[in-house]
Amino acid sequence: MGFSFCECAGVELPVVLAPMGGAVGAKLAAAVSNAGGLGILPLWRVEVETLRKIIRQTKSLTTKPFAVNLNMDFPQEERLDACLEEGVPIISFFWGDPSPLVKRAKNEGAIVLHSIGNAEDARKAVDIGVDVIVAQGWEAGGHVCGNVATLALIPAVVDAVGDVPVIAAGGIADGRGLAAVLALGASAAWVGTRFLASEEAEIHPDYQQRVLTASENDTSYHNDLFNVGWPNAPHRVLRNSTVDLWEAKGQPSSGDRPGEGEVIASSPTRGDIVRYQSYTPGPDAKGDIEALSMWAGQGLSLVRKRQPAAEIVDEIVNDARATLKRVTV
Questions:
Q1: Does the reported pTM lie above 0.90?
Q2: How far is CA 273 from the centre of its chain?
Q3: pLDDT (tens digit, 9 = 90+) per residue, 269-316?
Q4: b/e per residue, 194-213, with b = 16+ CB within 10 A?
């Protein structure tokens, strides 16, 4: 399954850990890589020395390939240079135009991934030298770069990019989802929400419990709601009291929202956290955790138990094999 991506990235299994900022650290990324998938570290916001430290920690936990994700809505030149100096084999770009940095990464021997939300952007990414396309459907949790559902998006992107490997993202949380996107022409699945329930996820226990009990109906998509710190970035979250409060007041724009600027939680590592802040509830957060931005995709109903990340990878792959074997036309 998924050999074009696996061969390109040097991994055994077509399961990719979504780089969920604030939830993925060295332990989770390394666990997925050690299980045969690809772990991705979301290091686009940390200081350069912290980035180096986390990369080295990850290397101490795995000898398998892993990647670093860089968000192009923010300057990433120094972080990319540090990644390349530290020998990161795969760079994942997200949001915005990565063209100024793709050539630099490839010149240093790195494999380059880029996340897109439509076929035209996929073509442009291939034209600038991107090695692997991540096609993100609207069902995805966290920040979402398009508005087309995964089922329609994947074949459109596969047809647009020819032999370039495509990773499917958005709403995939079990082996049936992996089997489905492989049938659509993708060569791997990008999985986020399922790994929020991993033992290695670095999130608040209240957040993890919400993931385990929520259904596919319990998320909401917003163009610019949890935007303090990262504005104008559409996203999907678990519905909560902040969403309800905002909707009850008629969904006003930034500057007129109820409770705007109100400190609702705090963290020793992040300080005060205000309502509508783009913040993944971490284990050290205290306060009104329920009201914070709990990123999650529509695959929630498929996430029902806390497991080691390696067990999640194995389960997804084994179930996908069984599904593909069972399906006949």
A1: yes
A2: 22
A3: 899 999 999 999 999 999 999 999 999 999 999 999 999 999 999 999
A4: bbbbbebbbbbeebbebbee
